[in-house]
Amino acid sequence: MASQISTPLPDKVKAPTPMMAQYLSVKESHPDSLLFYRMGDFYEMFFEDAEIAAAILGIALTKRGKNQGEDIPMCGVPVHAVDAYMARLIKAGHRVAVCEQTESPEAQKQRGAKGPLKRDVVRVMTPGTLTEDDLLEPRAHNFLAALGRSGAGQALAWADMSTGDFFVEDLSHDGASDDNGANIGLEDVIVRLTPSELIVPQGQDCTHWPWADELCITEQAPSMFDSSLGTQALQAFFGVSSLDGYGDFSRAMLSAAGALLGYIEATQIGNMPRLQPLQAIAHNVYLDIDPATRRSLELTRTLAGERKGSLLHAVDRSMTAAGSRMLGARLAAPLCDLAAIVARQDLVSWFIENEATMTAMRDKLRALPDMQRAVTRLTMGHGGPRDLAALETGLRIAETVVGLIRQPQMSQPQTNQNGTNALITTMPARMEALLEMLVAPLALADKLAPALADELPFLARDGGFVRLGYDQGLDDVRQLRDESRRLMAALQARYAEETEIASLKIKHNNVLGYHVDVRATHADKLMQSELFIHRQTTAQTVRFTTTELAEMERDMAAAAGKALARELEIFEALTAAVAACASAIGEAATALAELDVAGGSAVLARDAQFVRPDMRDAAIFEIEKGRHPVIEMMLPAQTPFIPNDCKLGADGDDAAAIWLLTGPNMAGKSTFLRQNAHIIILAQAGLFVPADRAVIGIVDRLFSRVGASDDLAKGRSTFMVEMVETAAILNRATPRSFVILDEIGRGTATYDGLAIAWATLEHLHDVNQCRTLFATHYHELTHLQQAKARLLCHSMQVREWQGDIVFLHRVIAGAADRSYGVHVARLAGLPYKVLGRAEQILAELEAGKHGAVDVGQVADNLPLFDYRSDDRGFGVPAGAVRPSAVLESIDAMLPDTLTPRAAMDLLYELKAMRAKDKDDHK
């Protein structure tokens, strides 16, 4: 008979606590987010969320109870410091769901419930939906974008929730694709905007997007991108029955904008931000700059991702964060509309002519808060008393700016920048429009100013932000609260006198509330009293309460509660007043930013000698003494930048659409190429340019292929990247475009590279017919000047002196006779024997350049190690450059010992040595 083995019963698994059950229920609704669960003064995280957050934030990972027999990992962050922790988690690519208490204890009692108070997610924070100043870069936009589709068409919508900007652009006009199948139009807009987050339909193939790894991409249900639902959502949000008044939108545009709006509503739990009316961007409104060109020109960020060293950093003289954001947006998207460019220039010119007004205005703008982001926080319910004060301050500054600009201008002549007396120029039409925008919301300041105290808390729930005398009811309640405090102080004095304990104090903490606190040595005296009720004993003190103290505490709490409740009512009323004119406030903030940009541009023009470009609707580009705006700013004050002219597309005998630029490396070719591209960017952004004179025809597309790197992740060599970018230029450039190419074909065999460069140059001249700067080391291309009427040869001027070269950084007419590569190699520090060997091989190759060169014979006749030792013991190959006899004689000279006759003889001797050196080097 088989023996029976008893099996122990499994341990009984306890059900989760009510609090943990609530947490699990909330977490189930937000599985893709880290859940910040509010408990008192801390946000707690549990399970895997806690492990992830603890690792990223570097905080302690602890345990709290068990779930299904396993310890529950836990970590937490204090409420008062939560923004800094959230910023680190969001920067690491995580979404954060904020779970707050949604009912009061009184409401819980009324419904007869037990257990934890109701909690729910009140907001989901993602990279593209941030509005807090501590989480945002002040001088940069934080765009949330959405990709919409309808049939074969697609569009991109984007918004900055913190400022209210809301745009959409149809991408169907440009269906060209790169070699990986990525839509070029989409990449162009994405690189222009650099959004923090992109929303795409679930199942969207993003693997072919070259920029996908650099962007937070969030998938959403395809139903969110339905264009019909998008139309309804937009109409409901803006409170209109039709979108016709906002523009003409394709179905793809409605899909994108509707999806973006739906995502905001989902993450903000219905608490929608203030957004400006949706604006459609036409594809020809902005100068088309492809991604490679943006990287090359470092418009708003350097290749290392830094703001410092970029074009934006070099020219930004804005006084406000909003002004810097606007300037950055203008440099990222220069205009193609001549009238709009001229309108921006007129503002800059007006401020230059009215220098005193400009200086006074900029001094006021120095204290301007970020009104755009303050009004957004208030309308979304995230704001506080300081945001109200920021708006009041901003509106007062706006009022002052209006007065400064509208003050009598014609009462007396002023001295203009040329030092002559002249009447002030007429105010531009755009200036009048901006002043009207500033005036519109000024009445709100009169509502805010009398309500706000001088010292304001960060949060409204902290109270104390309403000024004494603003509300009589609040003042009465405060008086009761303050009277209770006075009575509390009197009670403490009476207890100390009656017990004869001078050190007796009435204190407060969150556990016991108000209590009598005495040292342990006096405890027995109070223990024997019927008046005092023992509450707590610690190592140093003993704590008591009394019936009188408890009643007084209750009265004080009631008065304080009533005071805070009344303050919160006032705060809600003020916030409602802000919301009622939020659009006007946003327009006023935008107007101040535009004035800031214009004033900063005027200061830049004055201090850095920038000039107003003459903008024309023609294929012309004439620059006199142009300079590189970034490099010039980086040079020491005592080192002037060498300016250069550039003339393309002009009429006359010297008409040329293409400059073929030759010359050695380090002579300044790349600087010259980039500076002309930067001048175009600045001019079409409506700014002044670094030159003595500039006449610029509107450019529709700007291409700059200066330098390249490989793309190993996609299996593309440097040469392949170069060819892909060159193909994009040749396929897309129009007669109104501007192309900059540097050393095309250098990444392959010499004859292959020469052939590619030759064919590219011919195509640009004959087919694209666009303004072009073409730098090359292939001197054979200079022969094309004879065959191509619109091509001119130029070179970087170089001067030779005693076997060395001096770079003059000047562009001159004509072709360079050589590239001086060996000289540059010497500057780089190559060994003498390598330099000498290179000189010998170069001489052999140049001697045979008009016929076949026997490479094998060159190798036999010029062995690498055919060298002799110089006086310093270094190997010096035959023919290598070494100190001349002239220099050796000068080194040995003792001037103080020479007689006049000996000095004269030495000069003749040195002259003879120099003549011999020249003969030896022939």
Automatic annotation (TrEMBL):
GO terms for cellular component: cytosol. This is DNA mismatch repair protein MutS. One of its GO terms (biological process) is mismatch repair. ATP binds at G663, P664, N665, M666, A667, G668, K669, S670. This protein is involved in the repair of mismatches in DNA. It is possible that it carries out the mismatch recognition step. This protein has a weak ATPase activity. PROSITE patterns: DNA_MISMATCH_REPAIR_2 (PS00486). The lineage of its organism: Bacteria, Pseudomonadati, Pseudomonadota, Alphaproteobacteria, Candidatus Puniceispirillales. InterPro entries: DNA_mismatch_repair_MutS, DNA_mismatch_repair_MutS-lik_N, DNA_mismatch_repair_MutS/MSH, DNA_mismatch_repair_MutS_C, DNA_mismatch_repair_MutS_clamp, DNA_mismatch_repair_MutS_core, DNA_mismatch_repair_MutS_N, DNA_mismatch_repair_MutS_sf. GO terms for molecular function: ATP binding; ATP-dependent DNA damage sensor activity; damaged DNA binding; hydrolase activity; mismatched DNA binding. Residues 737-753 form the DNA mismatch repair proteins mutS family domain. Belongs to the DNA mismatch repair MutS family. Keywords: ATP-binding, DNA damage, DNA repair, DNA-binding, Hydrolase, Nucleotide-binding.
